[in-house]
Amino acid sequence: MIRVSITSMVLVLVCTSAGIVVLLWLLSEWLRSRREARLRRRAKKCPLCFFEFLTAAPLPQAPCPRCDAPTE
Q1: Helix, strand or coil, per DSSP, at residue 63
Q2: d(Cα 37, Cα 33) in Å, to the nearest integer?
Q3: pLDDT tens-digit series, residues 15-70
């Protein structure tokens, strides 16, 4: 039988739990950055009224919903 002290068992449990938390945090940050990048590709800014809006698809020239001017 392997003899292990209670402090070693607690240390392993705490390190494993902390590692899982860090991995989940890194995964959530990576997914958040991908989601924000996808939204940034759809974001447009009107050159006339400076209104920022999201388009339904990444169109090269979407009209501004406020002043109906074409965007680049």
Answers
A1: strand
A2: 6
A3: 999 999 999 999 999 999 999 998 888 888 888 999 998 887 766 788 888 998 88
By the 10 Å C-beta count (0-12 exposed, 13-18 middle, 19+ buried), 53 is classed as: middle
pTM: 0.64
Query: At residue 66, what is the residue type?
Result: R
CB 48 within 8 A of CB 64: yes
Predicted confidence at residue 61, as pLDDT, reads 80
What is the rounded CA–CA span in Å between residue 70 and residue 62? 6
Tokens of 29: 């940050």
Q: Which two tokens stand for residue 21?
A: 């938390």
